Amino acid sequence: MLSRRTSAAAPLDAENSQPDGTPTSTAVEPGGQAPLSRRAVIGWAGAGVAIGAAGVGSVAAATMDGKGAPASAPVVGAEVPFYGEHQSGIATPVQDRLHFAAFDVSATATRESLVRVLKEWTKAAAAMTGGREVGSGAASGLPQAPPDDTGEALGLPASRLTLTIGFGPSLFEKDGVDRFGLRARRPEALIDLPKFPHDNLDPARSGGDLCVQACADDPQVAVHAIRNLARIGMGVVNVRWSQLGFGKTSSTTPEAQTPRNLMGFKDGTHNIAGTDAAALADHVWAGPGEGPEWMTGGSYLVARRIRMHIETWDRTPLKEQEDIFGRSKGEGAPFGKLRERDAPDLKAMPEDSHVRLAHPDSNDGLMILRRGFSFTDGTDGLGRLEAGLFFLAYQRDTRKAFVPLQQRLAGSDALNEYIQHVGSAHFACPAGVRKPGEWWGQALFG
Prior knowledge:
single chain, 446 residues, nine-stranded antiparallel beta sheet, 9 strands, 17% strand
């Protein structure tokens, strides 16, 4: 059965750092095979080529486990449920493509106009993640009026699209002004992130009143989602900055092969599994009484744009690269071990190695859930690739997770010679929308 839309024609290798507890529905053809559009085939092929430079293709990562044996993989074209206790796109199995956008609310917007946009966004998000067109669609409605859907995803399956919303500190107070009557509802954990050593942050790529993270297995599906939300919000919100990403650099499905970053190293070996409810409760989901009620069941998102000095790294000897990470480049095994998932002997690694500094055993058990993506954005005008990692980390309380971890890494990580944090943002992502009729931010604004 085809979906309605189809029928309508920072840490880089951090040791600490899913389904989200709701069943995933999959649109399949008779005989059990999911529909695979020509666009999807091209998208997967392109992903494999792009990530090949980093040492692994996303298709291989999704279909092979750490020992080279077949592993269960999400079906291309599947739908991820939009409604649930938690927002999808956090503990959900990580897709291969990303379009992330931070929005600012217009200076002329009112609380009422912002609420209206959030309600419309929620309806559109539910439709698009279900493989359906927005509103009356791209080719219906009044001929004299612009269509409700931009149309570039017509004929494409849902591609496991997830849309995750977050609210930034500036939504609650900006330049000392409580624009929407939300100042008293700002969570204490939603801090303004401190400046870390070696940061070189671009204000034009940092901050934001709101964010939406669109993840999918087809880049056009992810871009379509952000484009339509931006269109719906026009006049009330505007895009402050955005980032495209490819080739997930962390996985929430440990049975699959660990992906690699653009430095060629396996990334996030010990990331939190999306099926580990206990770990998610301990490290990812905000608990009752830990902040305002509207954040119970939500999570705090840190987004960091990390530029890699690719050309310098590519001239670094293999032994030095491995010393910097504390792992072998081929297998990903910790120093002194044979296999990637062997328990590491941290003392066998250089004191300033990335893995040693980031491992939970070096940080009193601290863990974060990572959903990073690689990016390439042309060149910097000096003949060097503008490339790196778009780091996304979810945690129960940023003050107790990302901040102490990044302070440790920024202070003594040998990897700092080859990377620089150039963009930064922090958002509070509330619990999920539980049923039709509810909307993003309802508990915050209610």
